[in-house]
Amino acid sequence: MNGRRKKHLIFIMLLSGAILGGCGNKNQDSHSQKRAEAAVMETDDTTTEIQTEEQKEETTTEEQSETEAETEAETEIITTEALEETTTVQEQATAAINRSKISFSNSAFLGDSRTEGLKVYGVVSDADFYTSVGITVKDVMEKKKFLLQDGTYGTMLDAVSQKNYDRIYLMFGINELGWPYKESFVNYYTTIVNTLKEKFPNTDIYIQSILPMVEKRTDEIYNNDKIRLFNTYIKEVADSTGVNYIDVGVAVADSIGALPENGSNDGIHLNKEYCFIWAEYLKEQTIK
C-alpha cells in the first residue's frame, strides 16, 4: 500500500513538473511574441519613416520640377518677348535700310535740278540720271552738255540714247514758267517725247507734272497758279503722244495745292524727306 502511494506521488510530481514546464514555455513564448511584435512595430515605424522621407523627397523633387518648369516657362516668355523685340528692331532696321534707297531698276530720269535731288540725296537706286541745273525743254534738244561714251559731248537725248531702258521718267517745266507762249513749250516737249518713242519703242515713258512750290516762295512768274497751268500743257503732250502722265504733285501738296514749308529748304526744291515721298509715290504708280 505504501509502495503504491509512493509511486502515485512520484507520478503526480512528474505530471506537475510537466505541467509547470509547459506553463513556463507559454510564458516564454508569450514574452518572445511580445518582443517580436514590438520588433515588427519598430520595423513598421522605421519603414513608415523611410516612406515618409521618400515621400518628402518625391514632394521636394516634384516641387523642384514644378519650379524649374515655371522658371523655364518664364524664361521662354522672356526669351520670346526678347525675340519679338529683336524682330521688331530688325524689321524697323530692315525697313530703314529699304527706305534708304528706292530701286528703279533699269530706269532713266531726265530733268532739271529738282530731279537731280533724287540722286543727290541718294533716294533712288539702280537708275541713270540725265539732269542739269536750269535746263529747259529747248536745251534738251540743243545744248551739248553731256559726255558721251566716245568722249565727245552731246545733248541730253544723245546721252540717254546710248543705252536701253525699261522706263524713262521726264520732268520739265519749272524753268519755263516765264515763257510767254504755250506753243513753244508744247512743241519742244512733244518733240522730246516723240524722239524717245522712236529710239525706245518698247520702253514705258512717263511724263511727270511739275511739282508745286512753297506758297511763300512764289512770285509773279514762279507760282503755283502758273505751275497748274503748265501742268495742263504737259497733260496735253502726254495725251497727244500716247505716253503716261503722272500727277506727282498730289503726293506732296498740302490742302491748298502748295508744297508744305517743311517739304523744302528753299521753297522750290524738295528736301530729302519729301524726295522719298515723291519717289515712293512714283514707284507705286509705275512699277508693278
Q: Provide the CATH topology of the largest domain.
A: Rossmann fold
Shape annotation: globular
* Percent in helix: 55-70%
Number of helices, counting only DSSP H or I runs of 4 residues or more: 8
What's the order of the H and E elements?
A: HEHEHEEHEHEHEHH
Largest sheet: 5 strands, parallel
Total tally of structural domains: 2
CATH superfamily of the largest domain: SGNH hydrolase
The termini sit apart by 147 Å
Ranges with pLDDT <50 over ≥5 residues?
4-12, 14-54, 71-87, 92-97
The strands making up the biggest β-sheet line up spatially as 2-1-5-6-7
Radius of gyration computed on alpha carbons: 52 Å
Strand content of the residues, in percent? 5-15%
Q: Quick one: CATH class of the largest domain? A: Alpha Beta
Total beta-strand segments: 7
Q: Which structural category fits the helices and strands?
A: alpha/beta
On the 0-100 scale, what is the average pLDDT? 79
- CATH architecture tag of the largest domain: 3-Layer(aba) Sandwich
Topology, pairings included?
Blueprint (H helix, E strand, L loop, with lengths): L1 H99 L1 E10 L1 H8 L3 E8 L5 H6 L3 E2 L5 E2 L1 H5 L6 E5 L10 H18 L4 E5 L15 H18 L2 E3 L2 H4 L19 H15 L2
Parallel strand pairs: 1-2, 1-5, 5-6, 6-7
Antiparallel strand pairs: 3-4
